[in-house]
C-alpha cells in the first residue's frame, strides 16, 4: 500500500520514485472512474479548489477545473486580468485574501520560477504547481509518464528523447527528474542556444544531433517553440530549425517504428511536427490530454485527503 504524506506538489525533483508511483496508481483508479456512466465521485465534497492562474492556459486550467468538479469540490477560477493586482496588490496579498474563504487547495501557474514554493511557505492551504516560469510543470510530466506506462507497461530503463525548446521548457525539467527516477536514460536535443549550460548537472544526456536523439528511442517528447518567451534570437531561422529539429517524414526514418511520440501541446504543426504526421501522432497526444484529467484528479485527491491511493469510493 502506498501512502502520500506531502502537503504540496511543487515539482518532481524532490519526489521519490515511490511517491510518483502513488500518484500514477491513483490516476489509474480515477481513469477507471471516468469511464463509468456516472463520472462524478464525492471524494472532495466540501473542499474548495482555487485555480490561481497568472498566465494564459487552456488544457491545464480546464483539466484542473474538471478534475476538481469530478471529485465534487467547489471550484473558483481566478484571472489576474482585472484583479486587484492592477491596483498594486501583491500576489501574496491576493492569495491571503482568497485563502480567507477557507480554501483547501490552490492550483498555481505563474511566469516567475519559484513562486509556487514561495507561496507554499506562506499559506495553510495546499499548493499545486501548474507551471512556474522555467522551473517545473509536474502534472504535465506525470501525465506523460502515466501515458508511457499505460502504453509500454513500465517506466523502467527506457530511452527518452526530449526535443525542442529545452531552454524555456518547465515540462522538460519535470520529465527529466521524473523519468530518471526509474533508471531511464533521458536525452535532450536542441540547438546549443536552446540548452542551458547547467543542464550538464541534471540527470540527462545532451546531444545536438536529432539522429542521435531519435536512434533507439522508445519515447519522444516534442516541445513547442515558445516564441512568446523569446526576448532574443535563439536560431537563425524557422526554416533552419525545421530542417534539423522537426519531426518530419525525412527525420522520421531515424526513429524506431514502435516509438511513442508525445507533445505537451499546443502543437505548432510544421514546426515541431510535420502536419503530414498528424494521423500518426494525434491520437496519442489527445490521449495525453485525457490522461491529464485522471492525473490531476489523483493529485487533488491525495493532497486533500492525504490517504492511500487505494481508497477511492
Key structural traits:
313 residues, alpha/beta, Rossmann fold, five-stranded parallel β-sheet, four-stranded parallel β-sheet, 9 helices, 9 strands, 36% helix, disordered C terminus
Write up what this structure looks like.
The chain folds into two domains: 17-136 and 290-305, Rossmann fold (3-Layer(aba) Sandwich), CATH 3.40.50.1370; 138-284, Aspartate/ornithine carbamoyltransferase (Rossmann fold, 3-Layer(aba) Sandwich), CATH 3.40.50. It has nine helices and nine strands. It has helices at residues 17-34, 59-70, 91-99, 115-120, 138-152, 170-180, 210-214, 238-245, 278-305, and strands spanning 48-53, 74-79, 105-110, 126-132, 159-163, 185-189, 205-207, 219-222, 260-262. The strands form two sheets. A five-stranded parallel β-sheet has the order 7-6-5-8-9. Strands 2-1-3-4 form a four-stranded parallel β-sheet. It starts with 16 loop residues before the first helix and ends in an 8-residue tail after the last helix. The model is unreliable at 307-313 (pLDDT under 50).
Amino acid at each position: 500500500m502506498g501512502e502520500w504524506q506531502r502537503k504540496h506538489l511543487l515539482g518532481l525533483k524532490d519526489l521519490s520514485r515511490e511517491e510518483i508511483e502513488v500518484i500514477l496508481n491513483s490516476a489509474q483508479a480515477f481513469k477507471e472512474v471516468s469511464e463509468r456512466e456516472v463520472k462524478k465521485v464525492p471524494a472532495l465534497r466540501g473542499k474548495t479548489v482555487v485555480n490561481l492562474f497568472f498566465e494564459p492556459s487552456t488544457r491545464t486550467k480546464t483539466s484542473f477545473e474538471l478534475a476538481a468538479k469530478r471529485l465534487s469540490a467547489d471550484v473558483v477560477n481566478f484571472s489576474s486580468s482585472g484583479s486587484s493586482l492592477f491596483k498594486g496588490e501583491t500576489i501574496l496579498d491576493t492569495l491571503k485574501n482568497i485563502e480567507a474563504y477557507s480554501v483547501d487547495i490552490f492550483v498555481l501557474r505563474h511566469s516567475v520560477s519559484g513562486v509556487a514554493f514561495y507561496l507554499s511557505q506562506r499559506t495553510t492551504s495546499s499548493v499545486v504547481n501548474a507551471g512556474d516560469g522555467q522551473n517545473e510543470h509536474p502534472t504535465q510530466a506525470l501525465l506523460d509518464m502515466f501515458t508511457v506506462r499505460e502504453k509500454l507497461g513500465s517506466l523502467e530503463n527506457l530511452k527518452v528523447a526530449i526535443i525542442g525548446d529545452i531552454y524555456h521548457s518547465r515540462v522538460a525539467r519535470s520529465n527529466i527528474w521524473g523519468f530518471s527516477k526509474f533508471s531511464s536514460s533521458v536525452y535532450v536535443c536542441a540547438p546549443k542556444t536552446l540548452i542551458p549550460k547547467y543542464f550538464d548537472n541534471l540527470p540527462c544526456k545532451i546531444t545536438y544531433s536529432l539522429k542521435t536523439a531519435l536512434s533507439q528511442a522508445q519515447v519522444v517528447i516534442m516541445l513547442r517553440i515558445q516564441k512568446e518567451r523569446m526576448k532574443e534570437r535563439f536560431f537563425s531561422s524557422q526554416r533552419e530549425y525545421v530542417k534539423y529539429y522537426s519531426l518530419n517524414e525525412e527525420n522520421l526514418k531515424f526513429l524506431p517504428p514502435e516509438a511513442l511520440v508525445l507533445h505537451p501541446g499546443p502543437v505548432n504543426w510544421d514546426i515541431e511536427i510535420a502536419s503530414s504526421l498528424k494521423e500518426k501522432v494525434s491520437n496519442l497526444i489527445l490521449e495525453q490530454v485525457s490522461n491529464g484529467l485522471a492525473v490531476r484528479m489523483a493529485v487533488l485527491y491525495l493532497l486533500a485527503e492525504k490517504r492511500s491511493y487505494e481508497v477511492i469510493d
